[in-house]
Amino acid sequence: MNAFSRRHVIGAAGALAATAAFGPEAWAQSKTRLVIGMSLEPPVLDPTKNAAAAIREIACPSIFESLGRIDRAGAVGPGLAESWTVSADGKEYVFKLRTGVKFHDGEALDAAVAKFSLDRLFAADSTVPAKSLYTDIDKVEAVDAATIRIVLKSPNSYLLYNLSLGDASIMHPKSAATNDRKPVGTGPFTFKERKEGDSITLARSPTYRDAGAIRLDTVVFKVVKDPSAQVNALLAGDVDTFPGFQAPELVERLRKDARFAVVVGTTEGEVIMATNNGKKPFDSLKVRQAMAHAINREELIGAESGFGTPIGSHFAPHNKAYVDLSKTYPFDIAKGKALLAEAGHPNGFEASLKLPPVGYAQRAGEVLASQLGKIGIKVSITQLQWPQWLSEVFKERNYDLTIVAHTEANDLDRYARDGYYWGYDSAEFKARWREVVAATDFARRDELLKDCQRIIARDAVNGYLYQLAKIGVWKKDLIGMWENSPTPSVDLSGVHWR
User: Which residues pair with 33 in a beta bridge?
Assistant: First the structure.
């Protein structure tokens, strides 16, 4: 999950200090070497074992590949499957695998290996974070060495997309158990080294099927959590790019530097005030509506130096099925107080706001605490490290409120998941979502998606704040970086130095 964080603008002295902090040897500069800055360190390197977006940014599709591949426009094209056919009833998919594909350890890809990987996604005992995306699969068959057939229980119009996500990475039985620490895939780069808290290094794979098309020999993902240090690292030449730059208030400083390109694009990241619907008093619709009326999105986006688009539901504004619901509960302090009184809290109540260590959450947290305070909700802020947040909030649901950006595309399905961390359980939404998934007419699907957006907006499941902007910063002679972020990954297949 991406992050922004506020710091003061730095000067030349800061840049010199950064050079010392990063050591005497420059990380960057070689025309076959690329150093990519990241704000968050992935807990593991296997996307089937943890939901953190940082895993996918590094590993998918650089290390691991899926049957399909999502391009920079968000469209699905061939990945490890070179082609596929779909039955008329939408319940059977036949994939033709690429031949001659090797894993980094020399093992071959075939239908049996693909079946092994896909079976893991929907098995009864599966612990894959995105398991619910694949539970419509009834069985996977290896037709021959290069062909697999997937039979569905019912049609799923998102299946091709979901099979192209990092969550559906194809892994070999011999290395699957240790991919969290030593990932072995079929992608253009192999895992070389991890320095905990510092960096992860990949090297160009000699077994990759199109190795000649890969122009980089070494890629280093350098963890730089502090936004001011990110600027220092860029100015000192220690880092070549931050695909997701985390200090919007410092963008103008970099725009004035002729060495860099600053490119602002879109993301799939909805920044929300996630709310524990399964815990009192947040199980009350009137309480959630009261909080919705207390939200001033203009003030929140102002804290991001204007980067962000207001949202009123969990959906990206650039999607053609988007409907603007930001006025469902317009900013109205008096209305918020009245609803809180109607809910039995005329004097308000106390609530905790647990924040992950990402800049946008830190900034929004202070603003939201103040906004909620105006209707009588006294908010105490607790700062969590990322592993703590994943454990306490996401896994154990031990929280009242939190702030996070959900960066996955097509992620409205989370509101239909049983046991998901915000504890929403709506038979109406689940039924409508089943219609979305089963729809083979995409125009009809778009209308159903609009209905889904309206349901969760009406139910004020979470506080819908704004869509995260993608601020990319890179040296001007670096070619091929993505302007937008249709999926949480850093695709390096077309990246090279001029």
Answer: 218
